[in-house]
Amino acid sequence: MTVWRLRDPSSLHARSWEDGVIVFHAPSGDTHLLEPATGAALLLLREGPSDVPAMVRASGGGADVALLERLLAELEDLGVVERA
Length: 84
Description:
Elements: E1 3-6, E2 12-17, E3 20-25, E4 30-34, H1 36-43, E5 50-51, H2 52-58, H3 65-77, E6 81-83
Antiparallel strand pairs: 1-5, 1-6, 2-3, 3-4
């Protein structure tokens, strides 16, 4: 099972609202709008490395696994996350 972590936790800034999470990655200047459950799952990585099942549990079970895995792959390509 793949474990993920943020490359630089201090470079990821987020704001949460009822309808989503906005994540800003300072080094790239990229901003990402995430649906609430996926955003909550990703923000778990601020606390330390995690795998997808733990991220889904942290989202209250609402995160779609396939969507979360695609997001992690995209964020890995962008240098936001990496495999631990």
